[in-house]
Amino acid sequence: MTSAPPESTTPVPPSLATRCLRWVKANPTLHAVVVVLLSLAVIVASISGVVSRRQLERRASAQQDELLRSTTATLAGQASALLRLTALPLGWAFRSALLKDDLAAIDTYLRRMVQEPHVTDVALVGTDGVISHASDQKLQGRLAQKAFPEVALDGQSPASVVTGHEVRIVVPIMGYDRRLGTLVFSYALPELPKDRT
Known about the structure:
Layout: H1 16-26, H2 28-99, H3 103-114, E1 119-125, E2 131-134, H4 144-147, E3 159-163, E4 166-174, E5 179-188
Antiparallel strand pairs: 1-2, 1-5, 3-4, 4-5
């Protein structure tokens, strides 16, 4: 009869993984540390996400503002050029009326001009520098240099001056041998939308 090998009485040492698992289960402090570290990582990640999103929003807002300023400046330049171009025939019409001493035609031109979209005021300045006709009756009889301090009234060709959201056009009206007056009108630049969607 064969006998079975004797059982060994020495216990088998547990594996390293088993020992680590027992140690983790036996130490609740480790659980708390791991939970706190994970919570801190989540909080730091969310704060950094919020901060980076706000920085991106600020950068996008600054770029949008710069684009708006650039577009407004370009629009003002183009509007000035077109208004100077259209001011020449307008000056000729006023010249014709002044040579004929047709004050009714001048008043009609002024009323008609101010009815155009974005034209805010029109004034005809005499050779003495006093406003003789204006769409705003309060301006009549005033010195043009006080009413329009930003424009030079002694130019020899149409000129434009951009003031804020408005372009002032100055048109000299010349006779055969002398200056008959100066036409000054203002054109309000259209507002560009500023919605931040």
